[in-house]
């Protein structure tokens, strides 16, 4: 009876498909793609199993957002501008097996953010801004097999961060900025088979953390600045495939892999190796790739060459020296050819000195809480006026939020050499004294949000050379703290949002040569000097939304060859001129020009931009036409909502182009009067234009529009779907 009642309710609900969605009741699918939804529709059929909400604008996922759809098994929330997941946002989705939250703006995973997803098998969080994961965030995901955290802003993984993932098989952490891993970071992953740590900032093999992975068979560590693999550095009993390609390796110890007896393939391509010693203990090794290394095929390489023959290991690579053997494959060499005239010594590797670990000691300060298991200390919201001392020496995370310190004095954190993350948000701090962080040699994260800081001395960060993530949002800075970044060679992410900064001047970012993400939204910036960003040659993300810029800062973008994301939303820019983005045309992927009351985009404004562009936001502006974008063949998101297009014959090329796109772009006519409010695709004003009917079969019908909004089942070919977009003609 209960089942029949549920079916009856579902049938009733199925009849009401919320606008602007498309409902396939037969397969229990609902698609609401690239619309202007700001909240989850309340009238989605109750029995829906697959819900696709890509390309909307939810910002916050509230508590119980999906309680009305308890039968969901698949939920897609890509590109939805989600910034925060409230604790309990997914409660009630006990049947969900697939959740895609890729390409949003999530910065923090709270302890209960993913509560209620007991059946979830795949969680995709790629391309967000996740900088820190709170302990216990994955504690309710006991069925998860794939966790994708690629392309976020992770710098540090604390101990036990993946606790609860008892059946996880693949953990993807590529393209972050990781350079510190807690020794117990992977301790609770008994079934993990594949770990992807490539494209990070690891400077040494994290052997202690990896030793906890007894069942892992594949490890990707390529594209990390690792220079040396030490003795018995890797103790992974089941490891079969190790990728250390495109690193900075200069030497490998003979017994580096002796404690990984199952190792079959070793990829060492594109390093700085002049040779290798015989690899002791690697009896199962079948293949070593050394392609792209400057191999010195002299007598010094004979022991390795002989070992390859004895152990029957296939080796790839060619000689770089001596000149007589240059270009010869390793497997073609005969020992007599590998001669030494004058002794040629390989450079000795620089082995990082290991600091002896100090055990935790001491009592927890009165009124505070210390967790020896997680190495956390907390004195949150205790109305403290002085920073407490006496935390255990092995403390890794210290939470002092919501107190009333006023000032952080010199030497405020004695004995905390292992501290990685320091939280000082909302502490009424008006001064960070020189030497305040002295001795915090392992500090990576520093949160100073919601304080009263207006300036910083050049020596404010002295003693914290590993600091990579600095959050100064919502303070009182009227300009960037000049000189303060000189002592931070590892700074990767800088937050200075919602201050009172009015300009970026030359020298403001001096010393920030490694900076990748710069967040300056919500200031009052009117001017950016042409050389203001010059020190940040590795910059990838520049967020300038909500400032007072009257034009695109084209000159300041020169010298930023890696910039992939530029946000200029909510600036009073009326016109975008020719070549506005030429300095970053070869790297730019995501461009935000929305909500600017933009009146004109010059025909050559997008010159140089092309297939690399993946998302373009132009919504809520005042222009009546846009330039030719036919070469934007890689677009995944194009938002033209709330733009008053003049639907006459000059707009026909745009109309034809968007008709071929497999995207919902939201373009509507603002004029003439007879077309006002109509979708550009559906407007009949184009039917009187010269050339109409060439490629159109009587115009677009609602059925065709609906079909165009559905994801194509065919693979995208190499040909552009946008080739029909002709040049605008006056």
How would you portray this structure in words?
- The structure is a single chain.
- By secondary structure, this protein is mainly beta.
- The chain is 6% helix and 17% strand.
- The chain contains five helices and 45 strands.
- The strands form eleven sheets. The protein has a 14-stranded mixed sheet with strand order 1-2-3-5-7-9-11-13-15-16-18-20-21-23, with no helix packed on it. A 13-stranded mixed sheet has the order 25-26-27-29-31-32-33-35-37-38-40-42-43, with no helix packed on it.
- Strand 25 and strand 26 (376-378) form a beta hairpin.
- The chain is globular.
- The termini are far apart.
- Residues 1-15, 342-361 and 697-730 have low confidence and may be disordered.
Range of helix content: under 10%
Give the DSSP E fraction (strand runs of 2 or more residues): 15-25%
Q: How many helices does DSSP assign?
A: 5
Total number of strands: 45
Based on secondary structure, the structural category is mainly beta
Q: How is the biggest beta sheet arranged?
A: 14 strands, mixed
Query: Over the alpha carbons, how many angstroms does the gyration radius reach?
Result: 29 Å
Shape: globular
Q: How many angstroms does the end-to-end distance come to?
A: 68 Å
Mean pLDDT over the residues: 86
Weakly predicted, low-confidence segments: 1-15, 342-361, 697-730
**Spatial sequence of strands, sheet with the most strands:** 1-2-3-5-7-9-11-13-15-16-18-20-21-23
How do the strands and helices of this protein lay out in sequence?
Blueprint lengths: L1 H13 L7 E3 L4 E3 L18 E3 L7 E2 L12 E3 L7 E2 L12 E3 L7 E2 L12 E3 L7 E2 L12 E3 L7 E2 L12 E3 L7 E2 L12 E3 L10 H4 L7 E3 L7 E2 L11 E3 L7 E2 L12 E3 L19 E3 L5 E2 L5 H10 L2 E3 L2 E3 L47 E3 L4 E3 L18 E3 L7 E2 L12 E3 L7 E2 L12 E3 L21 E3 L21 E3 L7 E2 L12 E3 L7 E2 L12 E3 L21 E3 L7 E2 L13 E3 L7 E2 L13 E3 L19 E3 L4 E3 L5 H9 L7 E4 L30 H8 L21
Parallel strand pairs: 2-3, 3-5, 4-6, 5-7, 7-9, 8-10, 9-11, 11-13, 12-14, 13-15, 15-16, 16-18, 17-19, 18-20, 20-21, 21-23, 22-24, 26-27, 27-29, 28-30, 29-31, 31-32, 32-33, 33-35, 34-36, 35-37, 37-38, 38-40, 39-41, 40-42, 42-43, 44-45
Antiparallel strand pairs: 1-2, 25-26
